[in-house]
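Figure caption, in words: inputs first, then the predicted bound structure.
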Amino acid sequence: MTSQRKTYIIANWKMNFTPGQASLYLHRLSNRVQSSRNLQIVLAPSTISLQPLSLQINRRQFKLCAQNFYWRDFGPYTGETAISQLRGFVDYALVGHSERRYIFGETDKDIRAKVATAIRNDVTPILCIGETALERKNGETKSAITDQLLGGLHDVSDEDLRKVIIAYEPVWAISSNKHAKPAKPADIAEAEMLIRKQIARLYGQTTADAIPILYGGSVNASTAAGYLDIPGIDGLLIGDASLVADSFCSIIESAKGIIDER
Ligand code: PGA
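Bound structure (2-phosphoglycolic acid present):
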């Protein structure tokens, strides 16, 4: 791993903020956040806020990310938004978030189609994978992670894999989960090594070493630095704690501190 790796701090605002509130919040963040080399700060607002925020945002400071999209490019799909409609506004898109898998029933087939569609539209997919509490209890963590990883990357070529980011988010650690428990660094390190090993097997070691792997699940201002210190973890995907300027800015400061130490 080189010291030139990028660190990603990604805010997943989920279904929070009206466009007006999102715009005010972005304004507040813009006044507090300094852009920094090797740090990529990404905001994922609701779909309805992407277009207005894209007009307001300083793209050297923040990038935008879609939380969701449909994998077809256009057509009779009432209520859906295509990534081809969002591509001018976003640089990234979440794919396979556990709330989409388990609340909205997205399958590995949907997720694989979305990964491929995002890449085709020049949007970086952030493929979210992670085991449920039950899979963990049953000793199926490795197979759950491997199945979701290989399922999501099924149609991705060697060259296109360089455009993908992986986020390891154990479902039992996500704050919206009633019994959420923060993951231990050792669990995250083990998952990160498994993900790189599987990618190395399919795409080669150089590609496996280069792919960014993020962690997400109940990250807050006091735990962020510890998670960012895990070797091989290239950033954080943050839900709840990204909704409050103080905690989100303090997570960004932790990331800067760690980048400076490298
Ligand atoms: P959380 O959400 O930080 O609130 O646990 C993370 C996510 O769902 O991406």
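DSSP finds twelve helices and eight strands in the chain.
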